[in-house]
Amino acid sequence: MLLHAPLHCSQWTPSNIRMSLDCCNERDSLAEQLQMLGAETILTSNFEPRCTHVILNKPQRNEKFLCALVRGLWLLDTSYVKSSVQSNSLLPEEKYEWGNPKATHIAATNPSIQTYASAAYRRRVAVQNGNGCNPFSDWRVILALPKDKVESMRRILEMGGASIVSCSELPADLSVVTHVFIDSKKSGLKREEIQSLLASEAKCLKAEYIPAYLVNDSSFDETKLKFELPPERASRNESNFSSSRSTRRTSTRS
Region Disordered: start and end of each range (predicted)? Predict the structure, then answer.
């Protein structure tokens, strides 16, 4: 399934431009300025699917950025707003787009920001050119993660076309599952259930795989993000028994 191409500001009427702001210190001030230019602003902390642009201080690996990346939206530096106000109209985006070679005045302060910015630009161009398929099409996913991470990951994956399979009761036929994202300490699954998933044909991965897959830079290595079940801890009785045997051996040598 192809995503709809993000249009330039010049192709929208101002009332159809919906800009989400992810810049805490200046958010309210920038929102007021954008509204004066006729754009609708979105101030929610979570990603709003209706938005057409995201204004941010820097790309970072959070839900709003990753959802915008999936959609191939315009990700613009805050200087876009200030320059538009000076021109009294919403300007063309390219010179203010994170990762765009034309945006020469926007400097990435570290390699991670540069990686995220470049990925956002590549994705936006791909969608603009009609090559932006949903990145998670045909994925059927189990999220065995802490509760505070599940909803955010669910929104990112569903935004990209994935279907979520409940992990409260594993399906009898595990062949319907294509991907499993697991946190070894807070998965909510029994060890035997995790072993069954590892024995299935599904890819069992760490949650860090999702942003790495989306960014997909030269350092992406799927093998490093595969989930491996930690060794089972010995029970307290076994541990005490082992310790006792070790103590006896030491005493005998003495």
Answer: 229-254
- Using the predicted structure, report yes or no on whether residue 2 has a pLDDT greater than 50: no
CATH number, domain containing residue 36: 3.40.50.10190
What is 200-212 written as a DSSP string? Answer: SSSEEE-TTHHHH
- Say what the pLDDT of residue 28 is: 92
Q: Distances in Å between the alpha carbon of 43 and those of 31, 61, 109, 238? A: 8, 18, 25, 55
Do residues 69 and 145 both lie within one domain?
no
Query: Could you give the angle at which helices 63-71 and 111-128 cross, rounded to 10 degrees?
Result: 30
- Torsion angle, alpha carbons of 27, 28, 29, 31, to 10: 80
Same-domain check for residues 173 and 151: yes
Query: Is 97 a domain residue?
Result: yes
What is the structure's pLDDT at 135?
Answer: 92
In this prediction the pTM is 0.83
What average pLDDT does the segment 21-39 reach? 90
Q: What is the DSSP string of 44-106?
A: -SS--TT-SEEEESS--SSHHHHHHHHHT-EEEETHHHHHHHHHTSPPPSGGGBTT-TT-TT-
Contact call for residues 202 and 179 (beta carbons, < 8 A): yes
Report the first-to-last Cα separation within the chain, whole angstroms: 74
Domain that holds residue 113: 9-128
pLDDT at site 15:
61
Closest CA to 140 of 170, 182, 179: 179
CA distance 156 to 92: 28
